[in-house]
Structures are given as structure tokens and as C-alpha cells.
């Protein structure tokens, strides 16, 4: 079938809206009419080739939409169902069998190869192959092919266009606090970087009744929003020493810290700020081979560093949980969203890179 999709043809190139041909779904696949798709920094990392993804490609991995057609073996959803899309996992490796799908041994080839697991591609422009299957979806398009494993059925009484970011950014930030750190009432937390992932972590810290909740960033606008979202304190890292400021606020350092930036200097700060027995969660995405220098003595004295992928979440369980919290008014993640028409994808990306908007969502 013919679709409209945003294609990146060259490294750091523009997102070009093109008419493409999309394959019919295989037996385990689901054709989804995309209603809304969030833009994530991982999409931009793929555009800029910080991730090893073949070009030309269609990115997008925070899609939400309506099921149009299902393959012969699909039983999880049916046409007409509302779904949010997440990442691909194999379901057969040791991690998947342990319920840790985000640490799937085959995560890289399944999500970043530009093709299905069998090596076939799903998109063409005339005779030219366009790589897709990004996170098992490539949802910067009005239609996308997902699989039964990475679609999550969602209720129809919540606006579908806001649910895409639950598939990655919101789930990652909220899951880091709720699942990975398992923050409990009264524990203190410092969140470094309050973009969409960090802001979701702030919301989750409020749900977990953390206190104090310290938001750290260099953008005053984001800090203002973080305060509105429930942060008890904010620290502008460009104005003084954030480590000293946070230790003063928390009386010696927070129980938990989160690095949501993907910057070695910031990660060092998240470790240095900890008291004895404190835990630092690393969420920010970096290029392979990125190194950081840490004080070994501080780590030896009971501090923990924890790497976190996708908030240690099981999408089929955690996305409905986040939606229920949203319906209760306890997790208003929609307040960080700004909508853009699909044709304005370049403007949305520009605003995101400038820090003008926290979470841009494309309306398809």
C-alpha cells in the first residue's frame, strides 16, 4: 500500500516527506494507522548516525494508532483496537525469558538493522529500498508495520494522540524511578536533565512520594515546568556547582540520582552527589565507546551505579499502569507535549533541539 513517511536519505539530513510503498503484514505483524508519533532524541541519534542504522531510513519509535489489519497468527489485537507501540524483543533469549525484554540479547539487530528479523525490508520508493522496522515500527508515517510482540492494546477513553510517548520516553523516565530504583515514600532524588525522560521521572517521583525531588537542568524554561510538575527544588547547573547545591538541599546527598542527559560530565556529577549507600541510575543515551572518569573510592563506599534501559519496564504491564495513573490525574504526562502537523516535522525537530519544546508529537 502507498503511505506518506518522513525519510532521512543521508547522515544528518532533513526528514523528507515522501510517498512510499509499504509491504503487507506478515503472519505475526500488525498494520497500524498512526495517529500520533512522539519525537525522541534516539530518532535524532539515528539520523546523525550515532547509531549504526542503514540509510535511507524511516525512523520514529513512539507511535500510537488504530489497528487496520493483522497477520494470520496474531491474536493479541484485532482491527479497530487502539494501540501504543514499543520496542522489539526476541522473546527467546535469557533476558526475555526472565521478563527483561529491554535487555534482549538481540535488541540491536531487531531494532536497528533497518529490516525485519528475516532480513527483508518493508519500504520502497519505486525500485529504491528504504529501510524501516525501526524499533519494530518506523512510525514517522501515516501507516506502520509492527509485530504482535511490540503492540500494546490501550483503552479507547484516553486521547490516542497523546499515548505515543508512553512507548519510550515516558516509560523510560517513569520506569527508572518506579521499577529500576523502586523509590519509596520519603526517599530523596535528584534528576539531572528534565527533557521528556527526566520530566517523566519527576512525575514518577511525585507518584512514589519522594521528598525532596530536585530537578537539574540548564534551561530555565524546563526547570519552571519541572516545578509545575512536582519538583520540590530546581537547580540551574550553569549557575554554580550543582553537586554542592543538591547536597545542601538534601542534607548530604540524595538517596537516588538519575542521569537523563547522556553526558559523561553530568554522569560524574550524579555519582559525586550521592551519600554512602546512594544509587545513581544511568538513563541518558550515548554513542558506543563513550567513557567516563569516576572516583573509585566513592563507589567503593557503598554507592551503586545502575544502567537502565527503557525503565526496566514490561510494556504490556507498564503502559496500562501509566495510563491508569494519568486517568487518576496523578501522572499528567500530556502537559509536556506540544503537537505539530506531520508536514512540520523539521520545525518540531528544530524546536526540540533548541529546548523550546519538551516533547514534540506529530499529528498524522
What does this protein structure show overall?
Helices cover 27% and strands 24% of the residues. With 364 residues, it is an alpha/beta fold. The protein folds into 2 domains: 2-167 and 332-363, Alpha-Beta Complex (Quinone Oxidoreductase, Chain A, domain 1); 173-308, Rossmann fold, CATH 3.40.50. Strands 3, 5, 6, 9, 10, 17 and 18 form a 7-stranded mixed sheet that branches. A 6-stranded parallel sheet has the order 13-12-11-14-15-16, with helices on both faces. Strands 4-1-2-7-8 form a 5-stranded antiparallel sheet, with no helix packed on it. Helix 4 (169-180) packs parallel to helix 5. The protein is globular.
What do we call the CATH topology of the largest domain? Answer: Quinone Oxidoreductase, Chain A, domain 1
User: How many β-strand stretches?
Assistant: 18
Q: Tally the helices.
A: 11
Could you say what the CATH architecture of the largest domain is?
Answer: Alpha-Beta Complex
Rg: 20 Å
What is the distance, rounded to the nearest whole angstrom, between the alpha carbons of the first and last residues?
Answer: 17 Å
The assigned structural class equals alpha/beta
Backbone shape: globular
Superfamily at the CATH H level of the largest domain? Medium-chain alcohol dehydrogenases, catalytic domain
Count of spatially separate domains:
2
- CATH class (first level) name of the largest domain: Alpha Beta
Give the uncertain stretches in residue-range form. Answer: none
Major sheet summary line: 7 strands, mixed
Secondary-structure element string: EEEHEEEHHEEEEHEHEHEHEHEHEHEHE
| Residues in β-strands, percent | 15-25%
Query: In percent, how helical is the residue content?
Result: 25-40%
Overall mean confidence score, pLDDT: 96
Amino acid at each position: 500500500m502507498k503511505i506518506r513517511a518522513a525519510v532521512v536519505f543521508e547522515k544528518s539530513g532533513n526528514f523528507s516527506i515522501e510517498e512510499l510503498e509499504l509491504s503487507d503484514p506478515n503472519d505475526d505483524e500488525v498494520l497500524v494507522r498512526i495517529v500520533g508519533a512522539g519525537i525522541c532524541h534516539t530518532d535524532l541519534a539515528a539520523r546523525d548516525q550515532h547509531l549504526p542504522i542503514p540509510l535511507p531510513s524511516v525512523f520514529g519509535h513512539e507511535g500510537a494508532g488504530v489497528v487496520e489489519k493483522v497477520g494470520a497468527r496474531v491474536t493479541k489485537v484485532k482491527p479497530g483496537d487502539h494501540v501504543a507501540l514499543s520496542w522489539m524483543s526476541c522473546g527467546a533469549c535469557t533476558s526475555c525469558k526472565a521478563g527483561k525484554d529491554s535487555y534482549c540479547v538481540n535488541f540491536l539487530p531487531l531494532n536497528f538493522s533497518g529490516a525485519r528479523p528475516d532480513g527483508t525490508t518493508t519500504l520502497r520508493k519505486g525500485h529504491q529500498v528504504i529501510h524501516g522496522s525501526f524499533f519494530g515500527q518506523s512510525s514517522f508515517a501515516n501507516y506502520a508495520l509492527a509485530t504482535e510482540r511490540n503492540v500494546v492494546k490501550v483503552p479507547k477513553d484516553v486521547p490516542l494522540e497523546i499515548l505515543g510517548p508512553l512507548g519510550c520516553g515516558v516509560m523510560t523516565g517513569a520506569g527508572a524511578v518506579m521499577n529500576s530504583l523502586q523509590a519509596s515514600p520519603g526517599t530523596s532524588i535528584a534528576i539531572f536533565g528534565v527533557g521528556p525522560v527526566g520530566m517523566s521521572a519527576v512525575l514518577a517521583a511525585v507518584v512514589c512520594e519522594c521528598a525532596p525531588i530536585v530537578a537539574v537542568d540548564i534551561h530555565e524554561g524546563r526547570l519552571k515546568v519541572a516545578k509545575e510538575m512536582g519538583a520540590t527544588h530546581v537547580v540551574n547547573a550553569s549557575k554554580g556547582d550543582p553537586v554542592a547545591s543538591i547536597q545542601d538541599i538534601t542534607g548530604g546527598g540524595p538517596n537516588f540520582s538519575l542521569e537523563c542527559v547522556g553526558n559523561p560530565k553530568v554522569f560524574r556529577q550524579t555519582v559525586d552527589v550521592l551519600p554512602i549507600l546512594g544509587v545513581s541510575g544511568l538513563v541518558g543515551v550515548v554513542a558506543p565507546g563513550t567513557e567516563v572518569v569516576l572516583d573509585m573510592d566513592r563507589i567503593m563506599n557503598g554507592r551503586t551505579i545502575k544502567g537502565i534501559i527503557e525503565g526496566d519496564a514490561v510494556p504490556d504491564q507498564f503502559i496500562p499502569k501509566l495510563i491508569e495513573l494519568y486517568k487518576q490525574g496523578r501522572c499528567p504526562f500530556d502537559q509536556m507535549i506540544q503537537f505539530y502537523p506531520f508536514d512540520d516535522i523539521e520545525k518540531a525537530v528544530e524546536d526540540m533541539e533548541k529546548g523550546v519544546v519538551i516533547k514534540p508529537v506529530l499529528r498524522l
